[in-house]
Recover the amino acids of this structure.
């Protein structure tokens, strides 16, 4: 089984690249998307949330005194 598979890969290098290359490309794309999503979260979403929270805290109306 392994010998015939290695012979197939030696005879058809383009097929080898397709069989082995597509999963690698998919993994690279998933990794890049994950890094992009984390950067977006850390550098865009969290600062916006922090600014909104800080503005609400500073300009909050005083509640009734108890």
């Amino acid at each position: 089984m392994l010998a015939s598979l290695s012979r197939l890969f030696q005879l058809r290098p383009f097929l080898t690249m397709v069989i082995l290359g597509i999963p690698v490309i998919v993994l690279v794309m998933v990794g890049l998307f994950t890094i992009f999503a984390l950067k977006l979260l850390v550098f865009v979403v969290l600062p916006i949330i922090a600014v909104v929270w800080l503005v609400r805290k500073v300009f909050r109306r005083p509640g009734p005194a108890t």
